[in-house]
Amino acid sequence: MIYFLFGEMGAGKNFVGEQLAKELGCDFFDGDIVIPPEMADRVSKFRPLSKKMINDFVDNYLIPAILERASGDLVVAQALYNRRHRRKIVKSLDNVKMIYVSPPRIYTHLRRLLKRRRGFRWVIYFLLSKLFFQKPRDCFVIDNSRQLDSQIKLLTSLSARGLQKEG
What we know:
Blueprint: E1 2-6, H1 13-24, E2 27-30, H2 37-44, H3 51-69, E3 74-77, H4 83-92, E4 96-102, H5 106-114, H6 119-130, E5 140-143, H7 148-159
């Protein structure tokens, strides 16, 4: 089973993913580690990403990297702002569960971003990118502002019965 966590910048996908992988006893994969250098450079300079750049990342880097690592259960974290990219993940990978990590309350979210190096720039980047995030449909939601432990336990118990895919 592949548990694919997605959500807005700074929502806590990696934190939640690491906790979920620990609970499930499986590996965790941060999709950011396969971002190509040109794309990483643009993000580090707070420059926009083209649609082509994002499509190439999903098709030529993210999906192959997941397939390479998915010999057993795997938890993956990657933002994937666009529903089309999330549907592509579902179609390309067998046995995948899409899980939306809902960000914490706005003041907590902004405070987390401000703690990052060049925090004020991350806040601006987050506020601009928020305009492009397409809310999910029909998938499990982990609310990162509530009791995370109980939500992860609920998710692991529901995983045996199956979760809905993003539509």
